[in-house]
Amino acid sequence: MKVGSNYLGDGRCEFTVWAPPHDEVALQIVSPEDRLLPMQKDEMGYFKVLAEGVEPGTLYFYKIAGDNRPDPASHSQPKDVHGPSEVVDHSFSGWTDSGWSGVPLEEMIIYELHVGTFTPEGTFEAIIPRLGELKEFGVNAIEIMPVAQFPGDRNWGYDGVYTYGVQHSYGGPEGLKKLVDACHQQGLSIILDVVYNHFGPEGNYTSLFGPYFTDAYKTPWGAAINFDDVHSEGVRNYFIENALYWFENYHFDALRLDAIHAIYDLGAKHVLQDMAEKVEALSASLGRKFYLIAESDLNDVRVIREKELGGHGMDAQWSDDFHHAIHTAITGEQTGYYKDFGKIEQLAKAYKESFVYSWEYAPHRKRFHGSDARDRPGHQFVVCTQNHDQVGNRMLGERLTHLVSFEGLKLAAGTLMLSPYIPMLFMGEEYGEDSPFLYFVSHTDPDLVEAVRQGRKREFADFHAEGEFIDPFSLDAFQQSQLKWEKRQEGKHKVLLELYQHLIQLRRTIPALKSLDKQNLQASAAEEQKLLVLRRGSGTSQVLCMMNFNDKDVTFQETSSGGTWRKILDSSDSKWLGAGSTMPEKLMQEQEVTIRPQSFVLYELEPLA
User: Fold this and answer.
1) Mean pLDDT of the chain
2) Which of 149, 488, 534, 545 could covalently link to 165 via disulfide, CB atoms 3.0 to 4.6 Å apart?
3) Which has the closest alpha carbon to 123: 114, 136, 132, 111?
4) Which three-class secondary structure state does DSSP give residue 350?
5) What would the pLDDT profile of 260-301 be if each residue is shown by its tens digit?
6) What is the CB neighbour count within 10 angstroms for residue 326?
7) Which member of 258, 274, 398, 570 is catalytic?
8) Which of 410, 418, 434 has the alpha carbon at shortest distance from 549?
């Protein structure tokens, strides 16, 4: 059941809203003329009306319980979250991507960006001129943080209250479609971050229409979305239709589902499985594959297992363990959830098994955590060394640039790009951006703004708490977070960019790196030396990588099985502004070698004569 306003052409528009507790709902058109149209209720609680003389741009409310309220499935909110909804014509004339089939999941190099801070203009269309540089650098998939309409004009996007709407200050529906089409013209897939676990706190009128929430579960944001309680079918339909909506109307290639661990459903068919099945059917009908990628804190392979094996059927999920293992190895931090990490052997396990915690006791969680993911292919896991959460949820919004040396930044690049998983970079990471990424909001309710301030302070009380608190409502918090794009071509920034570019090229051209196969992978750790040795293979193609997380030289004996290995990359080379390599050009078995501090070296097995 499609919900919201469905423009049919020729001044005809069908309006559908789910409001099962109510006996009467009417369509209140407010512009260009004032009209009130009664709606008819069906047996499932949906009110409908087919209105004539309604063109795109028409503004409307629903009159419900005596009040005018925006459409919960509004496609556009040009006057902010409390204003009227707008009819949108989705037959966009600018599409030029009819032959586009998308980048296969296993080939993706993902680049996460925030629309508002990626450019000075902070709009969808302002991103377009930069797509060529991203493609040249090696990215082939853009992931944009949520764009659902939120209060004001600056926000991370997770306070969205109109799941179908497109943030007006970013350029609205037309601007977003132009961006998607431009990405496809450049050969880039585009992923949208969507939030199906909560609504933002300001402008959320959904509970006036129906039982969108349940008290059966609690989330960090209050009552949970009602996916399995009384009258949950209309709620499930609202979100499943939303996933299909982004694929059909906006041509997105994939959705990233925010924090699915806060989506509670104890029914026999989990809503995520239900959604995956509907998306799979859409893929079949349109002849191209659409992907669902879950962010999950559960370390639960049921998220990505096929439905035939009792899983939800998501195409991939994030692995926070991979990030945490790298972060602690490079920075040495041990606060908050980083207490559960800090050993090189944990990073070795992350390379081999995707999850560090696969039903082991996690001290910070104070419970056993995770499941065994060894049998799942590498392309089902998205990994990173930085993302909006891990940077922006620090009080000062520090990136790795602020926390580690230049050598450490290069080592982070190697650990990410040489993994058997789908790598994701956070905007600016590729050149060592030194602007922070802070948390910012522009709510219009002063009491809510103060609640956000106090809530953030409480979060920082025992985690990343050093420094002076920056007010998330201040314009300064937003402006400080904007990228300094011009630095891409300056000094160390340019060298780091070229290193990432080189790593991406190696990943695409060397079969052992291109194949995301964990079965032909070995990873071992020398804990005391803080050394990790990684070996990957695909047929006759074999690579060997040594990573030194120590702050001093490490001398060790290479014990890999036979053959001669040729050095193809050393992050300590002067080419990469290092102190100069101490590793041999050719590596033989049982050879004693010395590797520079905070560096990685990559070797390729020479073919037999």
Assistant:
1) 96
2) 149
3) 114
4) helix
5) 999 999 999 999 999 999 999 999 999 999 999 999 999 999
6) 26
7) 258
8) 410
Amino acid identity for residue 394 in this structure: R
3-state secondary structure of 487: helix
Is residue 277 annotated as a catalytic residue, yes or no? no
CA–chain centroid gap for 309, Å, is 26
Query: Which residue from 170, 168, 107 is spatially nearest to 144, judged by alpha carbons?
Result: 170
CA–CA distances in Å: residue 296 to residues 262, 292, 300, 348, 463: 9, 12, 8, 21, 21
Which pLDDT tens digit goes with each residue over 550-606? 999 999 998 766 789 999 999 999 999 999 999 999 998 888 999 999 999 999 999
pLDDT of residue 220 exceeding 90, the answer is no
Q: Give the residue from 270, 269, 315 showing the smallest Cα distance to 290.
A: 315
What DSSP string runs through 432-466?
T--S--------S-HHHHHHHHHHHHHHGGGSS--
Tokens of 192: 């949208």
- Look at the block and give the residue holding tokens 């999920």: 317
Say whether pLDDT at 464 is over 70: no
Q: Mention every residue, 6+ apart, whose C-beta is less than 8 A from residue 281.
A: none
Rounded Cα gap, residues 154 and 237, in angstroms:
29
Contact 514, 554 (CB under 8 A): no
Question: Would you call 471 a catalytic residue per the annotation?
Answer: no
- Of the pLDDT bands very low, low, confident and very high (cuts 50, 70, 90), residue 38 is very high
Set 112, 181, 295, 300: catalytic member = 295
Strands 422-426 and 381-383: parallel
Instruction: Encode 160-178: b = buried (16+ Cβ within 10 Å), e = exposed.
Output: bbbbbbbbbbbbbbbbbbb
Reported as half-sphere exposure (CB side, CA atoms, 13 A), residue 78 has a value of: 11
CA 525 to chain centre: 30
**What's the pLDDT at 240?**
98
CA 580 and chain centroid, separation:
37
Helix (H) or strand (E) run with residue 342 in it: none
Q: Quick count: other Cβ atoms within 10 Å of Cβ 56?
A: 18
pLDDT digits (tens, 9 = 90+) for 83-117: 999 999 999 999 999 999 999 999 999 999 999 99
Predicted confidence at residue 68, as pLDDT, reads: 98
Q: Could you please report the per-residue DSSP string of 86-104?
A: E------TT---TT-----
User: Which of 186, 105, 188, 100 lies closest to 141, judged by CA?
Assistant: 188
Closest CA to 258 of 309, 215, 294, 216: 294
Rounded to a whole number of angstroms, the distance between the first and last alpha carbons of the chain is: 65
Q: Which two tokens stand for residue 388?
A: 């909006």
DSSP letters for 548-574: E-SSS-EEEE----SS-EEEEEETTSG
φ/ψ of residue 592, rounded to 5? -85, 130
Q: Where are the alpha helices (DSSP H) in 510-553?
A: 511-514
Residue 314 contacts residue 303 (beta carbons within 8 Å): yes
Closest to 158 measured CA to CA, from 439, 474, 482, 478? 439
Written as six digits, the tokens of 17 are 């809203």
Total-model pTM: 0.97
Torsion, CA 358, CA 360, CA 363, CA 365, rounded to 10:
50
